[in-house]
Each structure stands twice: as C-alpha cells, then as structure tokens.
C-alpha cells in the first residue's frame, strides 16, 4: 500500500488557524477533488469536523480518541466514514480492504505522525505569508524527487500556488 500525504502549505508551512483553512482557492479544491476521488482519506477528528460533511466518492478514515463513532457523523453517512482509535488500526483496515493508496489529510499532529511513512507528498505551495496556529512538519525535500509540477497564478482574491507531487527516493 502506498502512503501519501496531501496538503496545501503557506510559505512557512502554515496549514490552518482556528481549525479552518487559511485561504479559499477554488483551483486547489478542484485539484484536491481530482486527486482524491475514489480513494481513502485518513484524517484526525478535528479535520473531519472542520470539513463539516462526508466527501462524496471517498472513504474517510477518522482518527479519534475522544469520541465514539456514533457521535462522529450522522447515521446516514456511516457507510463512507470509519472511526479508529489510532493510525495502526486505520492502516490495518486499509490493508485488509486492499487500498492501493491511502491519502493522509491532516491535521498537524497526524501529518507529523505519518510523514516518516509517506511515499508521496502532494503539496500545493501557497503564496501565503500570514498568521496560523497549525503547521505542516518540516520536510527534507532532498529525500524526494519531483514527479509533477504545475503553477497556478493568483486569481482574484485567491493567492497563487505551485502544485508539486514528490516521491520519496529509494534508500540504497
């Protein structure tokens, strides 16, 4: 199984403030949808709650030590959302269900925990230099090769961003 991280980060690894995204960039949201459609997404409880709804066409694996599954999500969406007490249980579920690529989608603590296991990083580098209270962990990009790259210019009030797909280099 391939472990991948998907995120958008500011110039200083900012990813959020007050449990919300720091920007609204329609092109990045479209890219996220395209990349994750049909896949499994692993995220923390706070990230799940910040989304506010199940994401169509994706299975959501939610890590939560504080809430029971019945409190996490509405009854009618239970088929696409699964709660786990820890990442090992979520990864075991993904392996058992023959998941080819598991996307990790935040928050900050989950990214820090999963970064050492990540094979791929799907990162939108956003032209943002403002305040945040949640950050993506530091990455040694020399350990990765760039497989894809595309620049998206500023549009209206939305900041521009540079999308890159990184793949971890094989250890010899």
Please describe what this structure looks like.
This protein has a single domain, classed as Dihydrofolate Reductase, subunit A (3-Layer(aba) Sandwich), CATH 3.40.430.10. It starts with a strand and ends with a strand. The model has no long low-confidence stretch (mean pLDDT 92). Helix content is 23%, strand content 32%. The protein contains 5 helices and 10 strands; from the N terminus they run E-E-H-E-H-E-H-E-H-E-H-E-E-E-E. The protein has an 8-stranded mixed sheet with strand order 5-4-3-6-1-7-10-9, with helices on both faces. Strands 2-8 form a two-stranded antiparallel sheet. The protein is an alpha/beta fold and 172 residues long.
Summarize the structure.
With 172 residues, the chain is of the alpha/beta class. 23% of the residues lie in helices and 32% in strands. The mean pLDDT is 92.
